[in-house]
Amino acid sequence: MTLVWPMRPIGELVAPINRQEMPEPGVNYRQIGVRWWGEGVYERESVDGGVTLYKTLNRIQSDDIVYNKIWARHGSVSVVPKELDGCYCSAEFPLHRVKDELLDTRWFYWLTKCRWFWGKCDEQSRGTSGKNRIRPEQFLAIKIPLPSLAEQRRIVVRIEAIATRVDEGRRLRQEIQDDAKALLHSVFHRLIQGAAYRPLAEVAPIVRRPVAIELDGIYPELGARSFGKGLFHKPILSGADLDWQKLFRVHTGDLVISNIKAWEGAIAVAGEADHDRVGSHRYITCVARDGIATPQFLCFYLLTNEGIEQVQGASPGSADRNRTLAMGRLEQLLVPVPTIEKQREFSTLQAKIAAIHQAQAANQPALDALLPAVLDKAFKGEL
After folding, report:
1. pLDDT tens digits, residue range 83-125?
2. Of 363, 376, 378, which is closest to residue 169 (Cα–Cα)?
3. Do residues 234 and 210 touch, judged by C-beta distance below 8 A?
4. I want to staple 133 with a disulfide (CB 3.0 to 4.6 A). Which of 12, 69, 366, 378 is the partner?
5. What is the pLDDT, as a whole number, of residue 259?
6. pLDDT grade, residue 131 (50/70/90)?
């Protein structure tokens, strides 16, 4: 890992801790788990002592070091935070405490978020029985960098200051997204006040463009994600691999609806990148009438609570596979139709907000990479 500081086995710095209790019927036990990839300890569902299958439960305290025997190789190692003090875990989660003044618990906490540490846990887990469980002696044999206690604390202060700024950046980004969403819905609801509702068939009738399949033809396919998350491109289909399937052409500006997943928001507008791709017979395309409606406005409405309730009501069935939106029912859906000028203004606002989201998405990888880069420098002695 680094030659800047001495490397010491974890076992020299911590001691196993045992606070086992026999579960008692009628007593509620708060349970914890440890997320993968250094994401920390979290509270799971509670369990009654008379229901749990474990013969004993181990009570945890804040600052305990805890790991999952099976998933330590996936970074399931962390330090217990104050808010989970007094919870319980099973024997699958060994507990340890720092035993001397050589190791700061926060130093170890940030160390558990490093890829190189996960790799060490993975190396120690390989070849063992029981789904690559890491045995306590193997975990304790892992060597970690150990500067002086003062240096550990100095570096931890710097890490946590940067982590606070990263969290603040994420919070601000989320606020921007939430405010933009609230703005859109506020403008939309003002826009449709007093607007007449008309059947979708009158506003954006169904248009089908069947594709003649040729054996040597290739057909770029698309699909629609649920919950209004847009269209995506599937692998290209070969005509030789198609037998009973029917394909239909999609054009820019089409309102694209999955007839089997419309009830959970698989509705989107095709963009320029989607033009001339194909969808299976499960995808219905509607074309907004010029001068009456914009596809972006209609899509937004269908994804509102009011709109999706209509879609769900027109998609009967209890099991997912039976919740099919028939074309006849789709055409009968009632949609608000304010003036086309107002719809276009709203679509322009949608485009501006979408551009903000795209810019944020483009910067997200850099924000996500910042803290791992800081940790890498920190544990190399470069911070």
Report:
1. 999 999 999 999 999 987 899 999 999 999 999 999 999 999 8
2. 363
3. no
4. 69
5. 93
6. low
Q: What is the pLDDT of residue 129?
A: 53
Cβ proximity of 36 and 74 under 8 Å: yes
Nearest to 336 by CA among 285, 287, 291, 302: 302
**pLDDT by residue (tens digit) across 305-331?**
999 999 999 998 766 567 899 999 999
The conformation of residue 3, written as its DSSP 8-state character, comes to S
User: Which of 54, 41, 119 minimizes the C-alpha distance to 87?
Assistant: 41
Alpha helices in the chain (DSSP H): 105-111, 115-125, 129-132, 136-141, 149-192, 200-203, 295-302, 305-313, 327-332, 340-378
CA-based nearest residue to 239, from 263, 258, 259, 211: 211
Report how many helices (DSSP H) and strands (DSSP E) the chain contains, helices first. Answer: 10, 22
Q: Residue 353 has which token pair?
A: 């907000």
From the list 316, 299, 202, the residue with the least C-alpha distance to 260 is 316
Q: How many CB atoms lie within 10 A of CB 308?
A: 19
Structure tokens at 291: 């001068």
Strands 28-29 and 65-67: unpaired
Long-range contacts of residues 340-344, Cβ cutoff 8 Å, at least 24 apart: 340/291, 340/292, 340/293, 340/294, 342/191, 343/191, 343/293, 343/294, 343/297, 344/294
Distance CA 214, CA 240 (A): 8
- 231, two tokens: 């269209």
Specify whether the CB–CB gap between 139 and 66 falls below 8 A: no
Distance CA 203, CA 17 (A): 69
Q: Identify whether the C-beta of residue 103 lies closer than 8 Å to the C-beta of residue 14.
A: yes
To the nearest 10 degrees (0 to 180), the angle between helices 305-313 and 295-302 is 80
Question: Which of 343, 371, 209 shows the shortest CA–CA distance to 276?
Answer: 209
Look up residue 321 and give its DSSP letter: G
CB 353 within 8 A of CB 180: yes
Helix (H, G, I), strand (E, B) or coil at 15: strand
CB 18 within 8 A of CB 54: no
d(CA 332, CA 188): 22
What's the chain's Rg over C-alpha atoms? 28
